[in-house]
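Protein record
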Amino acid sequence: MTTGPQRATPACMPKHRTIPPAPSVRRETFQKLVPTRGWPDTILVGDTGVLLAVCREDDFREAFQDRYAGRLVVADAVEAEINTIRTSPNKERSLRELARSVRTKLFDTGLCTIDEDYDSGLFNATLTQLQEMRRRAGKSTSGSDNHAGEAASIALSLRRKDEGEKVILLTNDCDANTIAGTHGVPARHFVHALAEFVCAGRLTESRAFDIFNIVQNVTGVPARECPQDADALRCLAEGDVCTKCDSFPLPF
């Protein structure tokens, strides 16, 4: 039996949406719409920077594989970005090796579904929005910074949401977070993922903070979202009770 990335087949025609204009205000922080411990049985749509960070440290990657097996979905444009990094002689060797790990440890093991079934009109409109927001911030919109992976991830998240699935977008990009939020899709970044694994007992807060410091140059969590010490990642539960997490509404 061969293994490899599963590819989704269209279950229905994509739903067309009215695309709002690019938000005039860029969120510098992520709204906390998901409890620290996460939601079970939720589809996670992974963006390039988060996936690269996941594969930097073996203990975290293994925990990630265990927890998200069968729930991780990756847009084809993100897969293409990983493949470009993996094979590009212009990328640093360490980054190419991380991309190879994403390919072999996440994609080729069948852990995630590679999904190319999303509305092209929504993708194009979202890409235009992301690039416009980036231009406003005085940043590049060419080459690897063109936001195609984020746009595809948002379009894919919306298709899955429209089909009745609970969806969380995993991205470190503030602009992708802003636009996903206008469509009612919660976004989480890599530090949120680390905190979730502390809550699950798979990492200590000290180890989670060490991993953050190791991968931050790769994953690029927004500065205002970065933990200042290990205590910021500490689980606040007492026994099986966590008032902060239990106060969140269910995602349906």
Q: What stands out?
A: The chain has one domain: 26-246. The two ends are 37 Å apart (CA to CA). The first strand starts at residue 6 and ends at 7.
